[in-house]
Every structure is written in structure tokens, then in C-alpha cells.
Amino acid sequence: MDKPLISYVLPTYNRVEWVGECMQSLLQQTEKNIELVVVDDCSTDGSDELLDWFADKDKRVKLIYNATNQGAGRSRNIGNNYSNADLIGVCDSDDVYPDCRTEETLKFFKEHANGPIMMTAPYVRVNYFGASTEDFNGEAFNEKLFKETGGINYFCHPAAAYMKKDILEIGGYKPETDKVTDDYQLVQDWIAAGKKIGFMAEQYLCGHRVLPNSIMAKQRGFKAEWAQ
Q1: Which of 13, 60, 110, 222 falls 20 to 30 Å from 31 in CA-CA distance?
Q2: Per DSSP, which regions of the chain are E strands?
Q3: CATH number at residue 117
Q4: Residue 59 contacts by C-beta under 8 Å, 6 or more apart in sequence?
Q5: How much is the CA Rg of the chain, to the nearest whole Å?
Q6: Does the structure show a pLDDT above 90 at 97?
Q7: How far apart are CA 14 and CA 42, in angstroms?
Q8: CA-to-CA distance for 144 and 220, rounded, in angstroms?
Q9: Helix axes 71-82, 182-192, angle to 10 degrees
Q10: 132 near 126, Cβ under 8 Å?
Q11: What is the pLDDT confidence band of residue 228, given thresholds at 50, 70 and 90?
Q12: Does the residue 31 lie in any domain?
């Protein structure tokens, strides 16, 4: 296969219940010329057997096993450095993606070739079983509000994509903490470097699952109905 048009970088840690569904949704994209770089961050739940099975079945899957636990931000940096495409798509291992994600992302970057720009898109919140629980209909990222208040304001990180050269220029992700996520710090650094964020509002590109033990759930508050 030719050089991939996009590399999806997927860090995972103890998500054996969902990572297979996530990987399958990416490998079933309508545009087949992709690469899926999976960075396992020392999972202890048997994820390795499932990841190895996917890699044996589909040569587009590239596996990296961290020797020590690095956290999501550092794992994304590892995957970004390993990727072969010029364009990188962000993924979370408990989310699912519509099969049009690649086509829509490539279309966006073709229309915004002058960059540097990071693309994000609407998401649909899904419950444990993948059923939609909440729709998001496309309010754009508000850069002015972010600069004034620090509020991410509708930025969906696992629907984002950026050029590899641009993420390397800002030094990649910083390690997340209990109070600050890797995506929040990415947006801060991206804006500070004078780069732009573009919002593709026509089509949701992520089925976003928020789990009760995630940093995002601690920040948002976890709603019981999300798991129904």
C-alpha cells in the first residue's frame, strides 16, 4: 500500500472492553489507505492478546508496547513520532468513529491547505453499549472565549486531526494531571503558538464515551444515565 493518507494514533490503557470496537470502527473506514498506530500503556487487563490479533489480521495496524506507564499525553507523542502519514487523527480507545471520518477529514484539510490548522468536529455522546444518548449539533470552538476564560468550549479532542509537522513544532503533548487533561494543554500550546483551530460542523466524527473513572468524568461530573 502507498504511504497512508492519515495515521490514527490510539493510546490505550486497560480498555479491553472497548478498544476492539474502537479499532474496528477505524479499520472499516470508507477510505482504506490509513494507518492505525496503537500505543498500549502497560495494560494489565489482557488487552495485548486482542491488540496482537488485530495486528495479525490487518497490516495497517502498528503496535507499540510501552515499557513503563507513560500516561495518555506521552503515549500520544510516542505514536505521533512513529506514524508514517503527514496527517494525524486523534483517537481515544473507548470511543467509536463513523466510517466517513477519514474522507471528511481529508476533505477538510484539502480545503484548508494553507494551515497551520487543527480540525475538530461535533460528537455524539454514546453509552456503554454504543447507543447515542446526547447529540451535539455543531457550535464552533470559541477561540476568544478560550483565551479569556480558559474554557475549551465544545472542542472534541478525539475528533481532532492535525499535520504531523505542526504537532512536532509545538513539542507535542504535555503529561496530564488529575486537574488538567492532555487535550486542554494541547489547545493552550496550539493557540499560544499562533496556530488556528477549525471546526467541521456538517458531520459528527466521534461517538464519545465518557467513563466514570476518566479524568474527563471527574471534570464534567459523571451522569448515571450515560451508562444506561
Answers
A1: 13
A2: 6-12, 34-40, 61-65, 87-90, 117-120, 123-126, 132-135, 161-163, 196-199, 206-208
A3: 3.90.550.10
A4: 1
A5: 16
A6: yes
A7: 8
A8: 22
A9: 60
A10: yes
A11: very low
A12: yes
Angle between helices 47-57 and 19-27 (to 10 degrees): 20
Measured distance CA(196)–CA(191) in Å, rounded: 7
Tell me which residue of 225, 209, 184 sits closest to 15, measured CA to CA: 209
pLDDT at 100 over 80: yes
pLDDT of residue 137: 57
Alpha carbon distance 89, 23 (integer Å): 13
Query: 53-57, 100-104, 191-195 — which is least confidently predicted?
Result: 191-195
For residue 45, is it within any domain?
A: yes
Residue 155 has phi, psi (to 5 degrees) of -75, 120
- The alpha carbon of residue 7 and the mean position of all alpha carbons in its chain are separated, in whole angstroms, by 11
Cell of 135: 447529540
Question: Three-state DSSP class for 89?
Answer: strand
CA 101 to chain centre: 12
- The candidate with the shortest Cα–Cα distance to 13, out of 56, 75, 83, is 75
Residue 97 structural domain: 6-227
Chain position carrying cell 492505525: 36
Residue 152 lies in a domain: yes
Q: Is the pTM of this model over 0.90?
A: no
Residue type, position 56, single letter: D
Q: Count of domains in the chain?
A: 1
